[in-house]
Amino acid sequence: MEERRRTNRRTLMSKLVMKRLDGSGQEEAEIEIVDVSKTGIGFTCSKLLDIGAVYESFLRIWTQEVLHAFLEIVRIEKKGKEFLLQQIQRFANNKAFVDKIQYRPHNPGDVLMLTGIGEVFPFMRIHSLLEALQPECSDIPILVFYPGKYDGRFVRLFDRLEPNPYYRAFSIV
């Protein structure tokens, strides 16, 4: 899209200071300011921020002057696959899946079968799930229907992606 302003936009960088109210910790996050208006500023940030939270900030403007301000987060526009991955993993992580999958008591002859592995990639990796299942299901075999190849050492999803070693795996066909 062609810029139609008389002057081009300038890149403005800043940092947010995230302090805990109990004084037990402080973290800083770089932000890139993308919009400034009378009612607020728009910025991008790699850290997850909370709506309603107030953050201390040090805004560096085009004159290199630093303005000390407090910013209240009133709206968040979430973008990017990294953000999506973080959000999904907040509620759909390995522990959540293990909690849903596990059952007691395990009976002789039980087999745990996992399907749909390709459908959740890249949000979940099978080797991570298998490692999380190990303490709960060590007494029963786990059968994974895997959309890829196993070469005796590595499982390769869709026979294209970089493999991760899972040394307990073996092919049944």
How would you portray this structure in words?
- With 173 residues, the chain is α+β, with helices and mostly antiparallel strands.
- It folds into two domains: 61 residues, no CATH class; 74 residues, no CATH class.
- Helices cover 16% and strands 32% of the residues.
- The chain contains three helices and ten strands, in the order βββββααβαββββ.
- The strands form three sheets. A five-stranded antiparallel sheet has the order 3-2-1-4-5, with no helix packed on it.
- α3 links the parallel β6 and β7.
- It is elongated, with a radius of gyration of 24 Å.
- The termini are far apart.
List the main descriptive attributes of the protein structure presented here:
three-stranded antiparallel beta sheet, five-stranded antiparallel beta sheet, 10 strands, alpha+beta, 173 residues, 32% strand
Question: Uncertain regions: pLDDT < 50 for 5+ in a row?
Answer: none
Secondary structure: number of strands? 10
Describe the global form: elongated
Strand fraction equals: 25-35%
Query: What level of helicity do the residues show?
Result: 10-25%
